[in-house]
Amino acid sequence: MTRNLMMSMQPFWLLGVGALAGLTIVAVLWLVAFLVHRPIATIIGEVLRERVVFPVLVIAAGFGLFTLSMTAWDATGGRFFDLKAEALHSVTRIPSVKLHEIVEEIPAGATDHEIHFNIPAGELKKIELKLEEIIRPKLDRLTVSWNQPVAETENEEDSVEVLPDDSFSWTRRREPEGPLAGELASLFVANETSSPINLTIKINQQMVVPEAWIIVVTAIGIAGFVSFYVLLQLLFPKVAAIALTTGKEAVSQPVFYLTMIAGCFLLLLFIVTPYFTFGEDVKVYKDTGLQLIMILGIFIALWTASVSVADEIEGRTALTVLSKPVSRRHFVIGKFMGIGSAVALLFVLLGVLFLVCISYKVVYDSRETSNVYIAWQDCYLEVARTVPGLVLYFMETVVLASISVAISTRLSMLANLTICMAIYVVGHLLPLLVQSRVGEFAIVQFMGQFFAAILPVLEHFNVYGAVAAGIDIPTSYLAWVGLYTLIYVTIAMLLALALFEDRDLA
């Protein structure tokens, strides 16, 4: 391995640990089901072999094998990842990591007032000290020391004087220095004034390896992915049968493989493509890759909806399916979930490659700009900021897929593609249409508000601003957009059921 490639792959050691944990959870669930209720174990085994589930498990196993291989290499004298023990210990410390904010009254004349914290070394991210309820601001002051009484401090950096008009703040850097970089067992406060003083202490605690969060997220994601299909099979077997069959047919189509090959080729090509952005190539690459994966996902969704719904209705295959104990409601919802499964698989396959490429792009561009201060944490940061973008664009694709399914119950492929593309364009322009004041022409505003009421506002899913600014997408924003997606998909499915209910299949 080259040094650049090794550094870019270090974040995926953590992902491999999460993948092993997720696969272990799935295996434990199967074992428990096998011992308690054999039919459920059979269903789990069938789900794991499904074509829309099995590739995800293969990728997870691949990352797990990568982690085991690199761990074995390090055990024989290699130097791939030096924070293995710290990362695993950080996962166990997640419940203990929190934000502390206390107000402590320091008695008058106190020389060594002790405040206990017991924060292990490396977990202190930020500490802020501030005086409150000051009666005599010019006279009040406190002296604070770390882990030892004020009178016993020998160096200036072992204590600090907190004044009424100037709070003290310390934030951990990548290479921290000083006494606060280690363990914080307690604070000692000296109050030389004749009146008690309130000291506000704000402590932000973090894991020693904050990036270890990816272990938990990956493990929960894999276990939740499998559990979703198992629960679907248990609770709604008819919908699950149609969904898995539809997903299998979509993945088996040559167009799916061609889309995958094209996506992989372009994602790899974009790494070495010069963007002439003066150090911002990573941001442009991220935006370009996200847009590419979304467009390919939308294409697969619209194509599959047309082939799986419209063509089956026109070819009277749907009539054969509905002649069995399957209702039209099961047919429509199953088709939509099958299309969503195929799109999800495409996002996972291309998304994993994209994240690996982003990590390498960070190191690759540092070589081009002669930046020698790049570390694996920088690669992880860019990867972590990209994942919410993939989730948002997947939600946008799902919304368009639901609309496509509704349209496919009545119209053919060409009409479906044309209408959905028009909705895609208008959906991204809706905020501009609503805010338009061209000549104070009321009809423009009315039409903008009208379209905003019936069409999805796709600009909610746009992450270009966050990518360009290099900021994180809040989890709360993902939750609200997810709720919006759920509401709009529900409306689209109700419309699809209404259109399909009185459709003459004969």
Question: Nutshell version of this structure?
Answer:
The chain has 506 residues and is α+β, with helices and mostly antiparallel strands. The chain has helices spanning 3-9, 11-36, 38-48, 54-75, 84-92, 213-235, 237-252, 254-272, 281-314, 317-322, 328-368, 376-408, 413-434, 442-454, 464-469, 475-501, and strands at residues 99-106, 113-119, 124-132, 142-146, 159-162, 168-171, 184-190, 197-205.
Detailed description of the structure:
It is built from 16 helices and 8 strands. It is an alpha+beta fold. The protein folds into 3 domains: 1-96; 98-205, Jelly Rolls, CATH 2.60.120.380; 235-501, no CATH class. The strands form 2 sheets. A 4-stranded antiparallel beta sheet has the order 1-8-3-6, with no helix packed on it. It has a 4-stranded antiparallel beta sheet with strand order 2-7-4-5, with no helix packed on it.
SSE blueprint:
Layout: H1 3-9, H2 11-36, H3 38-48, H4 54-75, H5 84-92, E1 99-106, E2 113-119, E3 124-132, E4 142-146, E5 159-162, E6 168-171, E7 184-190, E8 197-205, H6 213-235, H7 237-252, H8 254-272, H9 281-314, H10 317-322, H11 328-368, H12 376-408, H13 413-434, H14 442-454, H15 464-469, H16 475-501
Antiparallel strand pairs: 1-8, 2-7, 3-6, 3-8, 4-5, 4-7
Helix pairs in contact: 1-11, 2-3, 2-4, 2-6, 3-6, 6-7, 7-11, 8-9, 8-11, 9-11, 9-12, 9-13, 11-12, 11-16, 12-13, 12-16, 13-14
